[in-house]
Amino acid sequence: MRTVLTAQDIEKMLRTGEAVPADAILTPSARDALRGRASLLPAKPAAAKAAAKSVEPTVPDHEFRWTPGGDPKTPAEIEAFFNSPEIRVLKERMCDIGRRMWARGYTDGNGGNLTIRVGDNLVLCTPTLISKGFMTPDDIALIDMDGRQLAGSRKRTSEAMTHLGIMRRQPLCKACCHAHPPHATAFAVAKVQPPTCLIPEADIFLGKIAIAPYQTPGSQENADTVGEVGKDNQCVLMANHGVITWGKDIEDAYWKMENADAYCQTIWVASQLGKDLGEGVGGAKAKEFVRIRKMLGMPDNRDGLKECELCDNSEFRPGVACAVTKPADDDPAPDPQIEALVATLTDQILKQLKA
């Protein structure tokens, strides 16, 4: 079995001068600790170095792929799977994402939660009543697709049901991130759907941001409501609650959370500049956004819409216009006696002030 090394293990190796085994699995925190420490890395044979030069460049891929029908069944099999090196890596990554959420002010108190699907009927999830900035791998729980806890010493979050509501309806959803980022949550509280076609990155990586009606957090009603909206939208504003995003892995899901809050902040600032945001880049360019999303393997329910429908921001009302309204024609005329009384009182007050 391959060895999993954490940041604590790397720190020990730094003290002793021990080299990292060639087949070791490094957690995200371990990789951070190894930056600039090339001497600790195992030396690669010259032939391997030469072969590496001809390998096609790649991009990171953190998606967890399981064998359909291969879920562990017995308690012993489930426990072994839950404590396997591969799952340990995912637990470390969830803790890393939790720290990043907390550091950016996306969670307060014990707010927010994370999930990763790791089998036909298996999902890793963060526990209830814990700060996402201070989790450890031992805090992570394992549940099934009905929310029953299968492993882990900490009780799972009740809001995992909302994540499962999307996962059951959308097979591409392999991980979810829920948080309360201030700007995107403000749109959720105001029930304002962010406009489209304004910034390419937002349209490409998020698609159209949807709004799900309010339901009690953690309830089956919320799971069903958000699940129906989320199956076709990778970013959902939960009215009067927060934001949930999903992707092929937990890093992907978290990035979308950052994208959503940054976009909502930008739109908020832009809407205060006194200009009509209009249709943005226009429908012709927006079709490119949809094409790129599909090329990246992300679903987009705007596929097939006409150009004039892609950038319809007619419902977006930036800012608030304040003006003194004129009385309506049918408003009653002022009462002369009241007007005279007000004038008398005003004169008396002014005389007292002068005295």
Describe this structure in words.
- 41% of the residues lie in helices and 10% in strands.
- A hairpin with a 3-residue loop joins β9 and β10.
- The chain is of the alpha+beta class and 355 residues long.
- The chain starts with a strand and ends with a helix.
- The protein folds into two domains: 43 residues, no CATH class; 236 residues, L-fuculose-1-phosphate Aldolase (3-Layer(aba) Sandwich), CATH 3.40.225.
- The protein contains 13 helices and ten strands.
- The strands form two sheets. Strands 6-5-4-3-7-10-9-8 form an eight-stranded mixed beta sheet, sandwiched between helices.
- The mean pLDDT is 88.
Can you lay out the helices and strands and say which pair or pack?
Elements: E1 4-5, H1 7-16, E2 25-26, H2 28-34, H3 46-53, H4 75-82, H5 85-103, E3 113-117, E4 123-125, E5 141-143, E6 149-151, H6 160-169, E7 175-179, H7 182-190, H8 200-205, E8 210-212, H9 220-230, E9 235-238, E10 242-247, H10 250-271, H11 283-295, H12 307-310, H13 336-354
Parallel strand pairs: 1-2, 8-9
Antiparallel strand pairs: 3-4, 3-7, 4-5, 5-6, 7-10, 9-10
Descriptive keywords:
single chain, 355 residues, alpha+beta, L-fuculose-1-phosphate Aldolase, 2 domains, two-stranded parallel ribbon, 10% strand
For the record, the count of structural domains works out to 2
Average pLDDT figure? 88
- CA-to-CA gap between the ends? 96 Å
Computed Rg:
27 Å
Structural class: alpha+beta
| DSSP helix fraction | 40-55%
Q: What's the number of extended β-strand segments?
A: 10
